[in-house]
Amino acid sequence: MSATAVSALRHDWTLTEVKALFALPFNDLLFQAQTVHRSYFDPNQVQVSTLLSIKTGACPEDCKYCSQSGHHNTGLDKAKLLEVQKVIQAAAEAKAIGSTRFCMGAAWKHPSVKDMPYVLEMVKGVKALGMETCMTLGTLSREQTQQLAEAGLDYYNHNLDTSPEYYGNIVTTRTYAERLQTLAYVREAGLKICSGGILGMGESLDDRAGLLIQLANLPEHPESVPINMLVKIQGTPLEHAEDVDPFDFIRTLAVARIMMPKSYVRLSAGREQMSDQMQALAFFAGANSIFYGERLLTTGNPGAQKDLELFARLGIKPEQRTDHADEVHQAAIEQALIEQKNSALFYDATAV
Ligand code: SF4
Q1: What is the structure's pLDDT at 140?
Q2: Alpha-carbon distances of 337 from 302, 312, 322, 323, rounded to whole Å
């Protein structure tokens, strides 16, 4: 299959085809993914988002990977819904270090009627800063998706996690069909979709392929596809899960890139455990979005400075928002890079 042939937007992927991509020699797969990537994106740009937990822990869902589930004893510090002003302040700080999208996550089964007005104020406040907004709040009704859209929400994150066949091994308090229903409401309201999954939960190759097929065969591809590496958290049922072969992780990014050529593929949770070399390979495979900042909801994430240093070593530039040309934003990135240049270990790939 030539790269040109697979770069068209398709919604009819079969398991046989996707498994054939996974079975390609590593270099052939990466070459194909990189070729597809270049037909839709600047290969040297990565979009950066910041994620904030706006309500932490005591979640009634039983997702086996999650530190925030009330079903597992992970010793997590719980926190009620943050005040609107604190959220807007955190977004302003994220913007100052170069983030263009601010994602707000709440550990809920679904947002309650009493919480919705606060959530809507958060969207309006962050939007007013000139940032893109994203939320993950659990299952939504049709009415709630419309309210969020009217408040100015850009993206809604709702992960499918894994294949429909394997889903019951990971979550029992909701169904795959409910997830798909929320995604349909999100689309109907005109919001962009952020949806992906997690590797390393004991799933098979068929499950990885099955997840990507579900995402790619939606009526429209999600604009953002986070591919997470399981972060094994003590106290969760998956704390002793087997490690994913790093090459299999990279293969999954590459296959996602080929199947959803116009989507941002996000190198998401688990980045703290990845070497710089593995992240560089991930960008080559077509990942072009990361979370930026110290925390990723409740797990660690490489510091923003470390990311900027890696970007500079690879000649990668953080993507700018074209609809909000913002000198302050650019200046913040440049200042951070200048500070990095004073470090003895700094190597500037853009200067050669
Ligand atoms: S992943 Fe989300 S829905 Fe599942 S337990 Fe964690 S916070 Fe709750």
Answers
A1: 96
A2: 16, 8, 21, 24
Is 174 annotated as belonging to a binding site?
A: no
Q: Annotated binding residue at 313?
A: no
Task: Report the run of H or E that residue 133 belongs to, with start and end.
Answer: strand 132-136
pLDDT digits (tens, 9 = 90+) for 72-127: 888 777 778 888 888 898 888 888 877 888 899 999 999 999 999 999 999 999 99
For residue 208, say whether it is annotated as part of any ligand binding site. no
Residue entry with tokens 């007005």 = 117
Across 3-12, 98-107, 154-163, 272-281, least confident range:
3-12
Between the alpha carbon of residue 147 and those of residues 128, 179, 230, the distances in Å are 17, 19, 32
CA pair distance 258, 256, nearest whole angstrom: 5
C-alpha 178 to ligand 1 mean position (Å): 14
Q: Per-domain residue ranges for the chain?
A: 3-300
3-300 belongs to which CATH class?
alpha beta
Residues whose beta carbon lies within 6 Å of some atom of ligand 1: 59, 61, 63, 66, 68-69, 107, 138
Smallest CA-to-CA distance from 74 within 270, 238, 227, 199 is with 238
Q: Give which of 266, 292, 305, 316 is closest to 94, Cα–Cα.
A: 292
Which has the closest alpha carbon to 225: 183, 266, 253?
A: 266
Q: Which of 64, 65, 69, 173 to mutate to test the pocket of ligand 1 (most atoms within 8 A of CB)?
A: 69
Tens digits of per-residue pLDDT, 50-64?
888 888 888 898 999
Closest CA to 292 of 261, 329, 255: 329
